[in-house]
From TrEMBL:
This is Galactose oxidase. Keywords: Signal. The keyword ATP-binding does not apply. It comes from the Eukaryota. Coiled coil: none annotated. GO terms for biological process: regulation of phenylpropanoid metabolic process. InterPro entries: Gal_Oxase/kelch_b-propeller, Kelch-typ_b-propeller, Kelch_1, KMD1-4. It comes from Polyplosphaeria fusca. Residues 1-18 form the signal peptide.
Amino acid sequence: MRPISLLTWSIGLPAALAESWTVLASIPTGTLREHTTVALGSQVITLGGVVTGGATTKMVQVYDTTSNKWTRFADLPVPINHGNVAVVDGKIWLLGGLTSTSAAYTWKATTTAAVYDPTNGTWIPLEGLSTALARGASAVGVYNGTIYVAGGKAGTGAKSVDTVSAFDVASRKWLTSLPAAASRIPGARDHVGGAVVGHKFYVVGGRDTDTSNVKDTVFILDFEDLDAGWKTSAIKVPTARGGLATAAVGGKIYTFGGEGNQAAGSQGIFKESEVYDVAADSWAKLGPMSKPRHGTFAAEVGGKIYLPGGGTTNGLNSDVAYLDAYEP
């Protein structure tokens, strides 16, 4: 096999914000969008998504950051896009998402939930959300063995929701005791960013139902004071957008791309990269993405943020197999 060269470049910013992008091995199975991405050790893993031609896939694809090569894990139990996924205790937890209907590019919520153990390569079924609460395109956060699913939507044409659900990994049950103040985010959101820093869950940007109805809000939940409920930060996201990718590194939340851009010539896509310093409670603008896109998902390994796939125009039929990594 011909060695794969890595293309790296730095962006001219002040030293405090020096950064670089590296183009890596493309997804070998072809284009991919609306998947979920998680990190497990040195691996970056994509789960499901929409592939070339518009079908939703079961594929679980694995990128090794040490070798710059792709392999596969066992397929998902059902085809899923916009999945709610987290890694806890070395296992991958799938808690629903969206799946295909009989119409092209039309999706509905699935109650499917399962956990994957890489040591034996099998998916084990779990208790799913009720049909009334099933959804995808949510923000997902983990704290002390509990997976929180915030916001989302139940499928194509459905409205965004403000619901927060919590799944206990130890008992493998959905919690029914979440305090009322913690059980709803302050505004309905889907295609929203999520990150945990310390003991707080940040739900960033997103949109309310319509692709163009993008939001600049940051909702914050203190896991150590659930009774206090969600707060809305007075500090807004510099660029309101939905379908953005987010990742937390070193006490900061990095945001990339997204859709809903109304500017002429943008193709509906945001090129912006922006970072929220949690301790300073402030945002800073970074250099643009190496390839602006939406419908991708970020995962951090070793201080680098990996973004596989995505779409380069608003909506459908512009998917890529591109993989790059951002290093703050």
